[in-house]
Design goal:
The structure is a homodimer of 396-residue chains. Chain A has helices at 78-88, 97-109, 128-139, 162-171, 189-203, 215-232, 244-248, 251-264, 281-286, 310-320, 326-344, 367-373; strands spanning 4-11, 18-23, 26-31, 40-43, 48-51, 53-58, 112-120, 145-151, 176-180, 206-211, 238-242, 266-270, 291-293, 359-362, 377-382, 385-389. The first copy, chain A, is α/β, with parallel strands linked by helices and 396 residues long. Chain A has two domains: 4-51 and 349-389, Roll (Urease, subunit C, domain 1), CATH 2.30.40.10; 54-344, TIM Barrel (Alpha-Beta Barrel). Chains A, B: Pfam families: Amidohydro_3 (PF07969).
């Protein structure tokens, strides 16, 4: 293949304006004034180049994306939404391969090159979701990489048979095992975490736990997760999603947990949705904790909101964090790029020579400007292949 | 003039699909199957028609909209932002007529037909802002209507001479007098409110007070404002913007205040920005309180965020209010339409025969869908004149 020379870009965190020579799916060279040789040249006109965006937390199997608008039908309580989903998911034919496809295509066009999705696994739905998402993902593999977490939406202990299904899901190729509110939902945090971490240790998969439990209960569970992660030697392989308790804790407790999470190598993933608590991402980053970000629900029975655009998601995170300064807003951009890559364990991620050529080009003056205005994606490459190319103009 | 027939629209809250016949700047007729006569026909293809959007709270005089990206330069505290603005506003040439023009044009193109803006009035800046905004607004009067609030950004008592400037501003045509944290900033809530309401009573202008003061202090000030409004007989002419204390109060206090605000005819305007408290808009509406919404700062020294698009602002309000159901999301849409019209006292506002032909057409299945996806504005009319017309396609 002749390759591609991206002339006159401003790659983020790559030390100044540069050309990028793309060959065999990787960034072969990066620097000023590169010789294109036989490569096709695209003039970026000084545009900003970001590494491919990484969606660290969503639920593809639930989405109704691209289908006609469906007014939200659940009552106000969590139990209402769980019951509503159980009632309607069959009638709606979920997971819907067409909707999953439409959403992944929208994500790819918006510059997302990697996705972690939590797929429901519980008695009643079994492993259908894992298979549907796997098959759709296989068809789109050239445009976007999908990794699944086997997610016990209805609990593990509370839903007998789920532990065995999680293990079967690992056999089907999911790369992480999930969990949910070990105390609040499953009523036995130690046993719940024992099952999840046991699967991770036996099968070498990663861990990504939903933790909505609030206040001191959630703090206690974070402590248990930290202890378990250390004991199992799983640094860099465990994520806690949402972690509302971390947002609610007093400053001293946040400081203590941030240090312990950093030392244990645990990622915190936030979605910054609705009015829900957002962990103190700046404090976490300053303590050395990896922070990732994702949409959570997108146009499904749980939430009518969500677009799949991770720059928009970064805006929500920056906004809810009251980030005004460029260097702060970049923390949110980092969460949808390097932070997600850390959570997923992507090798060689970033805009460096030898890295996979996963990148997105936008017309923005600074990275913070890109988060604030979310400009169109002028060029998206996945492993060197053009996923979206719309050189045009749009600037606010 | 031959007029315009909008064929096959779905006007919001107008009882079903209808045509709209626009003549002499008003909606002359509304109903199915209208005879166009000599009017130009635009086929809306079943699109949703909303009344013109009403921006109820912004600061046009501060904006840097359309200028090159300027990283936020203030420190984290409120005092830092006030000092930063004082330091940089002269060097930046604020208010900047070009930036004000660019923002108003963007607002108009996004379907906003009326704007209330708070213009700084204090010793040092005098009435320059009022004059600049007035002159720009006059040039754009065919596209968007601007009304100014004379806003004592640095306090009234704390900034000697401001009371006289507020009165002078009224002479220059501002339609409302503002205030700011009568206790927290000016240290004497009764005197502060005495000056503001005194001006309103003497000159027949409206009142729109910034109230950020938190907790029981803010609740006390709301009580004072309610008492003052009743005593002056200013029902329907007083707005409290932000009202964080109302968001922070316990449910019983919220209930009591909601009832009193409704009875006094006071509007609550919220911006739902950053992580700042959002008043309980559903509870307020259920109690009969008029609720409006605006952007607050847009791309200025206070905030790098903001687009001028009120559907986006409605999304933020709905999102922060954790509105999922269509009927709840419509509360946010109501705030940027009818609620704003109530705050500004717009006569005959709405999609009814005889009303000014201020409207915006979008491709959305329901009003809530429009808030969630914020589709392009396919047609915008201001007093019957075409402000924006981009019949094209975009649908998520």
């Amino acid at each position: 293949m002749p390759g591609l020379l991206l002339r006159d870009g401003r790659p983020w965190r790559a030390g100044g304006p540069a050309d990028l020579l793309i060959r065999d799916g990787v960034i072969a060279r990066l620097g000023p004034g590169l010789d294109p040789g036989d490569a096709e040249v695209i003039d970026l006109g000084g545009r900003l180049v970001l590494p491919g965006l990484v969606e660290a937390h969503c639920h593809l199997d639930k989405t109704l994306y691209g289908l006609p608008w469906r007014p939200h039908s659940a009552g106000p309580a969590l139990a209402d939404r769980i019951a509503d989903e159980r009632r309607h998911r069959t009638e709606l034919g979920l997971p819907d391969p067409a909707a999953v496809t439409a959403l992944l295509e929208a994500m790819a066009a918006a510059g997302t090159t990697h996705v972690r999705t939590h797929t429901d696994v519980y008695s009643g739905v079994g492993l259908t979701g894992v298979e549907v998402v796997r098959d759709v993902a296989a068809r789109l593999a050239g445009r976007i990489t999908v990794e699944q977490v086997a997610f016990p939406q209805s609990g593990i202990l509370a839903n007998p048979g789920t532990a065995a299904l999680l293990e079967e899901a690992i056999g089907l190729g999911v790369s992480a095992v999930g969990g949910i509110d070990p105390a609040g939902m499953d009523r036995d945090p130690v046993r719940h975490l024992g099952i999840v971490f046991g699967l991770a240790e036996r099968h070498g998969v990663r861990v990504d736990l939903h933790l909505h439990d609030p206040g001191s209960l959630g703090v206690f569970e974070l402590e248990l997760i930290i202890e378990r992660t250390r004991a199992a030697g799983l640094a860099g392989r465990v994520t806690v999603s949402h972690a509302y308790a971390l947002a609610q804790a007093d400053a001293a407790t946040q400081d203590r947990l941030a240090e312990a999470l950093a030392e244990a190598g645990i990622t915190i993933t936030t979605a910054a949705i609705f009015d829900f608590p957002v962990p103190p991402v700046k404090k976490l980053r300053e303590a050395g904790v990896n922070v990732a970000c994702g949409h959570d629900d997108i146009r499904d029975l749980w939430s009518p909101y969500g677009s799949g655009d991770l720059l928009e998601r970064a805006m929500h995170l920056a906004y809810r964090s009251t980030f005004r300064r460029d260097e702060d807003i970049e923390i949110a951009l980092e969460a949808v790029t390097f932070g997600g890559a850390g959570a997923l364990g992507l090798d060689g991620y970033g805009l460096t020579e030898g890295a996979p050529a996963d990148l997105v080009v936008v017309d923005a003056e600074t990275p913070a400007h890109a988060v604030v205005t979310r400009p169109p994606r002028d060029l998206v490459l996945k492993a060197g292949h053009v996923v979206a190319r719309a050189f045009g103009s749009h600037k606010v």
